[in-house]
């Protein structure tokens, strides 16, 4: 079976390289022709703290992709999901499956395009960055969880977990949407750290006022999840119970939540978010509009107020357009709104 990795950037590149190294037949698909050319010419190089390793793997652009795809690991940015599905849906085999290795709530979009029975949910919380054509940085370890959208146990998901175990230790859950939503709501905090030119740990340790704002920001999304009847799961540096306690005025819980995030990022090679990198280094649109925009759209349908989230979307859009620069004042604007 050929494993098609659609989107060979940070997450897709790390995943594809690990699977190819383990002896699997892997095909990387990416829209960046220079990245594809570099991989075909010299392999895909993954940089880690302990050194770099280059793996030989096939790569193509999407226009060369043929039909009959059995397994697709989808790793494009959230805003690119509809376009990717336009390519993948007609090429997916009848019994094929798409696994969303993305940020956000893309499982809903995938299921609407190819059917729930051909969609597998996935939480990816290990870190990576695209460095240059043919080069990816592994930024730090984190959770990898799989599950059927309806929560049922299945041989398919068990086989996928065994397959992906060479990428990172992989667990199977009967509540995968509880994990993908958990990363999504916690991700709002990480987006907020990108409005300044600082490390994630510097932002979450900035001040009690900033910490309270970050808790309030996450809680907006958590209330949306609650209204959607999603049971949020704890993973790595996020525990919904801690954030609920902090939002209720438990100072120790607030300090514990922020110290866990700080420690997590201090241990990583990647200490700033992909959102920050898109803004400061690659100077391209981020996926914030698609990610947090989905939160706001759901919130409006469910009657949940999200003023902080909406303001954060505007701040990021201003940064993308060059109407403002990264500065601590951006964060203070959110603090004032939360007060």
Brief digest:
With 339 residues, this protein is an alpha/beta fold. The protein has helices spanning 10-21, 33-42, 81-88, 106-114, 155-164, 176-193, 200-204, 208-227, 240-247, 251-266, 274-280, 288-302, 307-321, 328-338; strands at residues 2-6, 25-29, 44-48, 51-55, 58-60, 69-74, 92-100, 119-124, 127-132, 135-140, 144-148, 170-172.
Relevant terms:
8-stranded mixed β-sheet; globular; 339 residues; N-(1-d-carboxylethyl)-l-norvaline Dehydrogenase, domain 2; alpha/beta; 4-stranded mixed β-sheet; Rossmann fold; 12 strands; single chain
CATH class of the largest domain: Alpha Beta
Q: Between the first and last Cα atoms, what is the distance in angstroms? A: 55 Å
User: Stretches where pLDDT falls below 50 for ≥5 residues?
Assistant: none
Helix and strand string, N-terminal first? EHEHEEEEHEHEEEEHEHHHHHHHHH
SS elements, strand count: 12
Could you tell me the strand content as a percent range?
15-25%
The number of helical segments is 14
Helix content: 40-55%
Mean pLDDT: 96
Radius of gyration from the alpha-carbon trace, in angstroms: 19 Å
CATH topology tier name of the largest domain: Rossmann fold
Shape: globular
Neighbour order of strands in the largest sheet: 5-2-1-6-7-8-11-12
The main β sheet shows up as: 8 strands, mixed
Overall CATH architecture of the largest domain: 3-Layer(aba) Sandwich
């Amino acid at each position: 079976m050929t494993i098609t990795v659609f989107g060979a950037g940070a997450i897709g590149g790390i995943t594809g390289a690990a699977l190819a190294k383990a002896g699997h037949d892997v095909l990387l698909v990416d829209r960046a022709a220079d990245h594809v050319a570099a991989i075909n010419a010299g392999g895909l190089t993954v940089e880690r703290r302990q050194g770099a390793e280059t793996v030989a793997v096939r790569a193509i652009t999407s226009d060369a992709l043929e039909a009959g795809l059995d397994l697709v690991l989808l790793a494009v940015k959230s805003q690119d999901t509809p376009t990717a599905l336009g390519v993948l849906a007609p090429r997916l085999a009848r019994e094929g499956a798409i696994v969303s290795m993305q940020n956000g709530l893309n499982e809903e979009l995938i299921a609407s395009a190819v059917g729930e029975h051909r969609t597998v949910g996935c939480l990816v919380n290990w870190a990576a960055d695209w460095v240059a054509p043919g080069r990816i940085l592994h930024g730090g370890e984190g959770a990898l969880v799989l599950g059927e959208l309806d929560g049922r146990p299945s041989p398919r998901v068990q086989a996928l977990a065994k397959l992906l175990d060479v990428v990172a230790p992989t667990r199977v859950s009967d509540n995968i949407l509880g994990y993908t939503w958990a990363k999504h709501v916690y991700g709002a905090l990480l987006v907020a750290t990108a409005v300044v030119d600082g490390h994630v740990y510097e932002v979450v340790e900035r001040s009690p006022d900033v910490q309270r704002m970050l808790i309030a920001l996450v809680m907006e999304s958590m209330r949306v999840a609650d209204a959607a009847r999603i049971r949020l799961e704890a993973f790595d540096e996020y525990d919904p119970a801690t954030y609920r306690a902090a939002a209720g005025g438990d100072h120790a819980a607030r300090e514990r939540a922020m110290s866990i995030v700080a420690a997590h990022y201090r241990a990583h090679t990647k200490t700033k978010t992909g959102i920050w990198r898109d803004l400061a280094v690659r100077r391209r649109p981020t996926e914030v509009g698609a990610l947090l925009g989905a939160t706001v759209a759901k919130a409006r349908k469910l009657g949940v107020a999200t003023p902080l989230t909406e303001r954060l979307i505007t701040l990021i859009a201003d940064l993308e357009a060059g109407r403002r620069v990264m500065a601590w004042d951006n964060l203070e604007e959110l603090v004032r709104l939360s007060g």
